[in-house]
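Inverse folding, one chain.
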């Protein structure tokens, strides 16, 4: 069954990425002049430098992989890859200043900058800021892309040597995708064409497989496969959703009928995909479809690995797997990713290939945006001045060094002007300020990984909260956030909530249309498993 969402594709993208009237929630950093270091000899060969296959999924939370042993999702190829490389159990994104979390997350990944240093919506990467593929291209790599590019067309054009099936947007019907062909001159002004034949996962997997099967250049390649799944709409071939039976799942332990207070982004499209109050039946059914989409991706990753093996490329290819953000799917009464809970911030991260640790796990906390400088360190390429995130290469470079390495001592997180958080030791502090209404949450994420027990009201934790609050303020200021947490409004510009934007007179019709489509998608997912709406 296909969900007829294509006609609203561009409306959805424009709505989620629509201007809020502010550049950021108080960024204090400006871009540096573009200066991309080059190797002494940029004419690289695949013999001297590894190929790179970077696989990025959309909305796949950290626990939704088989090797994590947290959820009943089937991912045999990723499980095998984790045994041939190193997995990071505490990889995070830093948050977002937009309800379309994917866009700023991908901008941070592509620039090696923090959430306060990219454009508020993430859709624009300033020409003065180098992108990861741009640096690799400038250093002798052939850079190839297929799939979702949730940023601007100009930054894409300067980043890639070739591409197939380019999707400039946030989401679409999985079977009706507005696509562009690669243009050598970087001209993407014409309207896209529609591919009505294949599921997006198959479309992009087939594109990179074709690239790998036919690649014959002497220079190494960087192939970036950016899936738009398991992001909704949860359309998936029947052979995959038939692998799962929702009634066989355990209850979601931290499911709530609704979020206990206004977190500043409850009226957003993501939260409409299942009705309130949340129920175990609905959560399990949506989880089954979500898992099916992930298993579909995993099967196609296996096909990519088989091609690398057949062409004797596997041993000289660095493979990186991750996702742009997580997803709640009923946890804490939420469905989306517009929060600072673990299910929304944490993502899977795998690195396998030449000179990488084998069958190991790193528990140190890292950001996805650390991958830009880390990859350059692996390749012995200097990072451009625009990169501000640290390299996690020390975590990959020998066990003795790893034991004493801390990349982010007190990592911070932010969502729009309404949520800020910090992790220290085993605890996470989340502070909310929604139009002057403040809430505080304190979780011991080691003993309470599902964040069910808020400790903030307990006198025994008063000193801890005070110290973490002060540290949060200091780290936010250092990162470029103008927020002053002890003031009534945090002294930062108000960012309109998504629902408020959409209920303005010029958008109210679209607001109701999207709400109707969300209900139709819920009906579609329930129909997979013979459930009544």
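Residues assigned per position:
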């Amino acid at each position: 069954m296909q969900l007829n969402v294509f006609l609203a594709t561009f409306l959805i993208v424009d709505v989620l990425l629509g201007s809020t009237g502010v550049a950021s929630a108080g960024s204090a950093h400006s871009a540096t002049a573009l200066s991309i270091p080059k190797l002494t000899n940029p004419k690289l060969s695949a013999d001297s430098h590894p190929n790179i296959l970077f696989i990025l999924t959309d909305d796949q939370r950290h626990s939704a992989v088989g090797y994590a042993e947290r959820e009943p999702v089937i991912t045999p190829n990723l499980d095998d890859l984790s045994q041939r490389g190193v997995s990071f159990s505490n990889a995070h994104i830093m948050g977002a200043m937009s309800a379309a979390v994917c866009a700023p997350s991908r901008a941070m990944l592509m620039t090696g900058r923090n959430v306060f240093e990219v454009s508020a919506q993430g859709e624009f990467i300033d020409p003065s800021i180098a992108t990861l593929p741009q640096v690799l291209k400038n250093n002798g790599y052939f850079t190839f892309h297929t799939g979702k590019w949730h940023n601007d067309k100009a930054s894409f054009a300067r980043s890639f040597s070739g591409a197939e099936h380019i999707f400039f947007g946030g989401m679409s019907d999985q079977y009706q995708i507005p696509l562009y062909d690669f243009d050598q001159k970087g001209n993407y002004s014409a309207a896209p064409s529609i591919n009505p034949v294949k599921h997006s996962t198959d479309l992009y997997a087939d594109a990179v497989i074709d690239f790998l099967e036919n690649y014959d250049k002497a220079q190494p390649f960087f192939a970036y496969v950016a899936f738009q799944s398991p992001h909704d709409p949860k359309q998936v071939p029947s052979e995959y959703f038939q692998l799962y039976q929702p009634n066989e799942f355990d209850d979601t332990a931290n499911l709530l009928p609704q979020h206990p207070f206004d977190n500043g982004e409850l009226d957003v499209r993501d939260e409409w995909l299942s009705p309130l109050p949340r129920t175990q039946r609905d959560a399990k059914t949506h989880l089954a479809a979500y898992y099916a989409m992930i298993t579909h991706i995993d099967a196609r990753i296996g096909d990519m690995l088989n091609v690398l093996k057949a062409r004797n490329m596997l041993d000289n290819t660095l493979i990186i797997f991750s996702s742009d953000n997580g997803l709640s799917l009923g946890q804490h009464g939420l469905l989306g990713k517009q929060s600072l809970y673990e299910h929304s911030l944490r993502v899977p991260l795998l690195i396998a290939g030449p000179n990488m640790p084998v069958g190991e796990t790193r528990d140190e906390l890292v950001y996805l945006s650390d991958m830009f400088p880390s990859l350059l360190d692996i390749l012995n390429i200097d990072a451009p001045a625009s990169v501000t995130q640290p390299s996690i290469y020390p975590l990959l470079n020998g066990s003795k060094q790893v034991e004493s390495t801390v990349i982010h001592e007190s990592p911070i997180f932010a969502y729009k002007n309404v949520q800020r958080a910090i992790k220290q030791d085993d605890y996470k502090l989340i502070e909310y300020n929604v139009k002057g209404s403040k809430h505080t949450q304190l979780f011991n994420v080691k003993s309470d990984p599902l964040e069910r027990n808020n400790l903030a009201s307990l006198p025994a934790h008063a000193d801890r909260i005070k110290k973490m609050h002060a540290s949060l303020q200091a780290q936010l200021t250092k990162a470029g956030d103008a927020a002053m947490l002890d003031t009534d409004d945090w002294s930062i510009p108000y960012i309109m909530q998504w629902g408020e934007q959409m209920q303005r007179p010029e958008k109210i019709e679209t607001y109701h249309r999207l709400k109707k489509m969300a209900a139709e998608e819920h009906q579609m997912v329930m129909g997979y498993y013979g459930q009544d709406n």
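The chain has two domains: 6-386, 418-492. Residues 1-33, 39-43 have pLDDT under 50 and may be disordered.
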